[in-house]
Amino acid sequence: MIESQTFSFAGTSPLNVALAVMLVVVGIVLAGMAMQRSGYKRWIVGLELLRVLLVSLVAVAICQPEWIQSFLPDTDPVLVVLRDESDSMNTADIPVTGNSVSPDMMSRKASIEPLIAADFWAPAVADRTRPIQVIMEPFSSELAQPTTGTDINMALQRTLEKHSNLRGVVLISDGSWNLGNTPSEAATQLRMNDVPVYTVAVGSETPLPDLEVVSVEAPTFGVVNKPTRVPFTISSTLPRDAELEVVFSSNDGERMTSRVTIPANGTLQQAFVWNPQKIGDYSVTVEVEVADGERIAENNQMTVPIEIRRESLKVLIVESYPRWEYRYLKNALSRDPGVEVRCVLYHPDIEAVGGGKEYLPQFPASVDELTSFDVIFLGDVGVGNGQLTSEDCQRIKGLVQNQATGLILMPGLRGKQLSLVDTELSDLFPISFDTTQPRGWGNRVPAQLQLTEIGSQSLLTKLADSAENNMALWNRLPGFQWYAPVLRAKIGSQVLAVHSSESNADGRIPLLVTKTFGAGKILFMGTDGAWRWREGVEDKYHYRFWGQVARWMAYQRNMAGGDSMRLFYSPDRPRTGQTLSLNANVMGANGEPLQAGQVAVQMVAPSGNVQTIQLTSQAETGQWGLFTGAFVPLETGEHQATLTCRETGATLATTISVQGLQRERLGQPVNLAPLQEIAAITRGQMVKPSDIEQILAAIKKMPEPEPETRRIRLWAHPVWVGLLIGLLSLFWIGRKLAGVI
Fold first, then answer.
1. Of 235, 373, 707, 733, which has the fewest Cβ atoms less than 10 A away?
2. How far is residue 608 from each of residues 75, 639, 640, 654, measured CA to CA in Å?
3. Pairing between strand 211-216 and 228-236?
4. Looking at the structure, do residues 332 and 463 belong to the same domain, yes or no?
5. Distance between CA 402 and CA 568 in Å, rounded?
6. Containing structural domain, residue 590
7. Residues 589 and 650 in one domain
C-alpha cells in the first residue's frame, strides 16, 4: 500500500544547478539570435522553441529528478518464538516451587510451557500502530532420523529465510548445541538484517547427580578360551565418592562383579577380563548399581556385541643371531595353540641359516607366501651379507601398508637394524637413530621402562588388571642393561615407555613406541631385556606382553577374512554419522593379489535399506590387491556387509555393529556460552526464565517498522531517454525540411 508520493531532485549541488541554468540561458540566447536572423519565420521559431525545450530537458536531467514512493509492508511484522524440543530438554532440574532446594523437580520442557503460549506475549506486542504477529515454532535436529541432536544455527537460519518481515526472535533453549555449524553464523546474518535475538537460558548451571556408563570398549571379536579384556568408563557428577558394585554379564549367563570407588565429579576407567568358552556371537553388558541420590538411572548400563572365534594367527620371526630375547619369544609363541610360528634365522658370519621344524630356509620370496603372515618380528637383522635384500624390505613395506600386517622392530646389540634405515623400511620406523652409536648403549646398573601417560592407558602395556597395580608392576619388573641408540620419536608416533633415567636434548629416551603406517601397525622395542621378566614367574608377564602385542598387531587384519578376500575397517566400533573407512584385500584366481577389478561392499542397514559402496583400487600399490572406500552409517544396530569381486566371483559376508552417538545427554548443565554469543552479536539480550519481563519490555520498545521507499530515477528512465531522442530527431528533421542544413 502506497503511503506517500513526492518529487525531488537528487543532483541539486551548486555546480549542477549552475551548469543547468547556464545551459538553458545559452540555449535561449542562441534560439533568439536564430529567430532574429530568419525574420521570425514561423517554421524557424517553432524549431528554435523545440531547441529550447531539448536544452531544458537536458538541464533538468543534470539535476537528477526522482519520483519517490513510500510503501507500508503488505504483511504484519513477525516475532518468532523458537522453543528447543531436543531430548536434553527432558532433564528434570527445575524446582517446582521455585525453591532451589526443593526435592520436587520438573523437566526443562515442562517449565517453559507458560512461555510458549500466545497470550503470554500479547501485552508486549499490543498498542502498536502495526500489530506484531507472534509465531511459535519448535526446533531440535535438522538432520534425518535416527540421528538426533540440537542444531541452533539451522533453526535461526530457517527462521530468517522463512519470514520476510521478521522483527525479532526469542530463542528458548538449554544451549546444548551439538549439530551443525556454529550459531554465530546465523546470528551474524540476523544482525545484518537488524533482527535482534533474545535468548532464554533454561536449566540449572550445575549437573544433576548422576552415574553414567560412558563407554564399553570391547573388541569386535575375541578368541575362544583366551582372556578378553572389556574396558569400560563410568563418569560421575555425584558430589561425593561412591563405592558401588559394577556387574559384567554376557548373554550366555556368565556374570562377574567388581567393587569400585567412583570419584566425585570424576571418571573411573577399569576393565573386566572375560574368558569365553564357546564360539559364537555374544552381547556383553556392563552395569553399575544406582547410587543414593542419583537422579537418572537409565544410563547406568551399556551393551555391546562381540564375536568369539577360533584363533589362527601366523607369525614370522626374522633374526640374525639366536639371542636370549629371540629364544624365549619363539618358545613362548610356539607353545600357544592359536599361533603358528615360522622363523628365519640368519648367521651372517657363516654360510647357513637356522633349521628345524619351524624354520624357513629363506625369507619368503613370493608375495602370496608373505601375505599369509599376520605379524612380522624383525630382530637384530639388516640388509646384505646373507640377510635381507632390498626387495625383501620393499615387500615388507607393502605388506604393512596394504595388507594391515603388524611389524615389530626389535634391534639388538650388533646394530644390524640401522642398515634398514637406508631401505624402503625407513618410513616405517617410529623413531630416529643415533647413527654415531650403532651398537647402542649399555649400563652395569639395570634400568627400567617407565610408562608414559599414553602408555599407562594402552592395552599393550596392561600386565595387571587395575591401573594402579599395572603401574606398580612395571616399576618392579626386572630391568635391562642395554638399549638401542634412539634419538627421538618421530612426529605421528606414540611413546608408550621411556628410559627410567637416561635422557638427551629431546627428553627421556623413547624405548617403546608405536605408529600406524597405511593399514598396518608398527611397534618399536628399544631394548632386548624383556626375557628377564620371566624371573621367578616364568612366562606370566613376558608372554602376556608379547602375546597381546601380536594379537593387537593382527586385530584389524583379522576382522573378517576368507580364502581369497579380507575386509577390515576403521574405527572398529563405528557410531552413527561417523565415517567408516573400508579396506579390502582381494586375491585373483591364481592366488596373486588382484591388480584391478570391480570390488564392492553391499551394506544392509537394520531397517533394510541397502547401499552399495564401490571400492577403489590403490593405483600406487595395486600389486598388493588393496581396495578402499568409505561409508557413513545413519542407523544404529547390526549392518550386514557383503564384499564381492566381479572378476573372481568371490564373496565375503560379515556383520558390522554400529553404535548410537549419544549427542543428547540428560542431566548436563545449561550451556550459557552460545546463548550469550547469539544475544551479543544480534544486539539482543540473554535472561533466565525468572527475568523474562526484561525481554517483554525490550519487545515493547521495538521501533515501528519503517516504510519501504521506492525511487524512480526519471533522468535515467527509458521513457525520458526515448523522449529526448524523439525530440532531437524531430528537431533535425525539421531543420532539414526548412533548408537550414
1. 733
2. 47, 9, 10, 16
3. antiparallel
4. yes
5. 11
6. 560-658
7. yes
Angle between helix 118-125 and helix 692-700 axes, rounded to 10 deg: 40
- Measure the N-to-C terminal CA separation of the chain; round to a whole number of Å: 53
Distance CA 248, CA 271 (A): 10
Q: What is the DSSP letter of 359?
A: B
Are 62 and 11 in contact, with CB atoms under 8 Å apart? yes
CB under 8 Å, gap of 24 or more: what pairs does 608-617 form? 609/635, 613/582, 615/582, 615/584
What grid cell was written down for 397?
613395506
**C-alpha cell of residue 716:** 535515467
The DSSP output letter for 654 is: E
Helix, coil or strand: residue 470: helix
Give 10-residue mean pLDDT values along the chain (741 residues): 69 83 86 83 83 84 80 74 88 72 75 85 75 84 56 91 88 86 92 92 89 87 82 90 93 90 90 88 92 87 87 87 90 84 83 73 81 90 87 88 88 89 91 89 88 86 80 89 92 92 90 90 92 86 85 75 78 83 79 78 90 82 73 86 87 84 80 93 91 87 72 80 85 78 65
- CATH number where 198 lies: 3.40.50.410
Q: Is 485 helix (H, G, I), strand (E, B) or coil?
A: coil
Cα–Cα distance for residue pair 511/522, rounded to 1 Å = 13
Nearby residues of 271 by Cβ (< 8 Å), 6 or more positions away: 229, 230, 231, 232, 462, 465
Contact between 270 and 184 (Cβ < 8 Å): no
